[in-house]
From TrEMBL:
Keywords: ATP-binding, Kinase, Nucleotide-binding, Phosphoprotein, Transferase, Two-component regulatory system. It catalyses: ATP + protein L-histidine = ADP + protein N-phospho-L-histidine. It comes from Amycolatopsis roodepoortensis. This is histidine kinase. Residues 50-117 form the Signal transduction histidine kinase subgroup 3 dimerisation and phosphoacceptor domain. One of its GO terms (molecular function) is kinase activity. Its EC number is 2.7.13.3.
Length: 239
């Protein structure tokens, strides 16, 4: 009799264990399905965020470049219509041509910065320094880290504008770029010896005003001016 009871208890325990296993298996399957759904939603949200970021990057670049281009072409049209200043109109057309070229370069940078196989900020700046007419020195200080595309595009744009202005106003003079990484910010400094050509605080294609506006969109700031016999441009972004 006791033997039968013992067998019955063993069978009951086996049945309970099997039932518990089935319940746990069902719960694990449900949890796995929920995890898959959550991952799909996360991927969908990430894709939407990426599309929004791409649209914002391209919009910012094109809005600024095309807006400035339109203003200069409108002034050139007025000057030509009145025939009051043909040379001035020609200068506006030439400036518009450079604005278009700079805008195209920045748009390409904005698209390239969204790709995974593009050079880092430091490498992009090093390439600019190497291709500068006459060459330019480049240094990096601090621990490098990836930056959002908006910051990368803005800092590369500042470096390009600063090098263009250095070639225009101080041709043949030494030019230096230095990139600083700290815990809270990234700082780009470009300087060159002052040349014989005087310059204002807003010269060149987009000019420093344009670069300042571009940095502001990325939450950064820009300063520029003469300092101890050098013209220094400094851009700072919080990152």
């Amino acid at each position: 009799m006791f033997g039968n009871v013992g067998v019955l208890l063993v069978l009951m325990l086996l049945g309970l264990n099997r039932r518990q296993y089935e319940v746990q298996a069902a719960q694990a399957a449900a949890l796995l399905e929920q995890t898959k759904l959550a991952q799909k939603e996360h991927a969908r949200a990430a894709a939407l965020d990426e599309r929004t970021r791409i649209a914002r990057e391209i919009h910012d670049v094109l809005a600024h470049s095309l807006g400035a281009l339109g203003v200069h072409l409108e002034i050139a049209e007025v000057l030509l219509a009145e025939k009051s200043d043909v040379d001035g109109a020609l200068g506006r057309v030439r400036l518009s041509r450079r604005l278009a070229a700079d805008g195209l370069a920045e748009a390409r940078d904005a698209v390239a910065a969204l790709r995974s196989d593009v050079p880092s900020l430091a490498e992009a700046l090093r390439q600019l320094a190497n291709t500068h007419h006459g060459g330019a020195s480049f240094e990096v200080e601090g621990e490098q880290r990836p930056l959002p595309s908006a910051e990368v595009v803005s800092l590369v744009g500042v470096a390009r504008e600063a090098l263009t202005n250095a070639a225009k106003h101080a041709a043949g003079r030494p030019v230096s770029l230095r990139l600083f990484f700290t815990r809270t910010e990234v700082r780009l400094r470009v300087w060159n010896e002052l040349g014989e050509t005087a310059r204002s605080k807003d010269v060149g294609g987009f000019g420093l005003t344009g670069m300042r506006e571009r940095l502001a969109l990325a939450g950064g700031t820009l300063t520029a001016g003469p300092d101890d016999g050098r013209w220094t441009v400094e851009a700072v972004v919080r990152a």
